[in-house]
Amino acid sequence: MTLSIRAALAWLGPGRLVQDAQVVCDGGVITYAGPATPISDADETLDVGGFLMPAVADRHVHIELSDPAAVLRGGVTAVRDLAWPPERIFPLADASELPSYRGPLIRAAGPMLTGHGGYPTGDAWAPPGTGRELTGADDATGVVRDLAGRGATAIKVSLNIEAGPTPTDAELAAICDEANRHDLPVTAHAQGAGQVERALGAGIDELAHTPWTRLSDEVIQTAAARMRIVSTLDILSFGRDTPQIRTAIDNLRRFHTAGGKVIYGTDLGNGPVPPGIHTREVLLLRDAGLEPEEILDAMVRAPMDLDAPADLIALARSPLDDLAAFDDLRLVVRAGGVVLAR
Ligand SMILES: [Zn+2]
């Protein structure tokens, strides 16, 4: 099944803007992306007129707290679930690989590794098993090995000292060692005094949220060299002006200026985050100083290279001129199949 899409403008990846563009998908992957070319044997041809780009990946969600079909129709074709009971999320992640699945491709961390009685074991949003209470360094090693064997694509750690006990330093070291052995990134929910510093000291790869208490310039510099940050800005304010959102934007702006890698994530499932592309999160990335093209780069699942997944979206106009264009979604394609066309 060959699908050919023409667009007035296409963004294939950083620095690769093509006018009068054509993208061809076959077998779930991109087989051509570039200037319009006469290809006669496509089974289906679409002309979207507007702006074509790779589809979006949301790298911080809790997918069972949302509607997977609405997430996909909203232009998000891949998600990373960062805390859910393993016996529920890993089978769902497997199921999401089938073309018949009505939702995004799901990658998952499984449970959040935490201290005895620590976050999120007592939280209403988290079903039993969302937090895994560690009982020592050997236990931590075994849990990470088990999660790697079940297909985890990241390891999530709770460093929320405000909500309860966190893993010990020995457990953290064991987690990072074992995750390294399996090439898995470790991502942390860091909340409370000194927790970002602890994450840095342990060699954690990523913060699952932009911190909303002020980080010193020194911590920001070190973090920018060693870590990436998943944005999740809008959950700090949901469109209002709060001290938390101001501090988080200031942290993220300094992190970005220092060369730190920012990626798009919404914490979907936490409060009134809409399924699909969340334009307010996009606009907050701009407030943190990212250029439009850097924002697109932070959002997409993968650039439109040959053999990349044929996951695409089209907008009525270019988000490089106006980021609010993400509210005007015209086409969603996942694995070469049209999910939405209007
Ligand atoms: Zn979360």
Question: What's the short story on this structure?
Answer:
With 342 residues, the chain is of the alpha/beta class.
Strand-residue proportion: 25-35%
Poorly predicted ranges (pLDDT <50, ≥5 residues)?
none
Main sheet properties: 8 strands, mixed
| Overall pLDDT level | 97
Strands, total number: 18
Order of helices and strands: EEEEEEHEHEEEHEHEHEHEHEHHEEE
Question: What value does the Rg take, in angstroms?
Answer: 20 Å
Number of helices: 9
Helix content estimate: 25-40%
List keywords for this structure.
single chain, 342 residues, alpha/beta, 7-stranded parallel beta sheet, 18 strands, binds zinc ion
Write the layout of secondary structure elements.
Layout: E1 2-13, E2 16-26, E3 29-35, E4 44-47, E5 51-54, E6 56-61, H1 68-73, E7 76-81, H2 86-95, E8 105-108, E9 112-114, E10 131-133, H3 137-149, E11 155-160, H4 169-181, E12 186-191, H5 195-202, E13 206-207, H6 217-226, E14 228-230, H7 243-257, E15 261-263, H8 279-287, H9 292-299, E16 312-315, E17 329-334, E18 337-341
Parallel strand pairs: 1-4, 1-5, 6-7, 7-8, 9-10, 9-11, 11-12, 12-13, 13-14, 14-15
Antiparallel strand pairs: 1-2, 2-3, 5-16, 16-17, 17-18
Helix pairs in contact: 3-4, 6-7
The structure holds zinc ion.
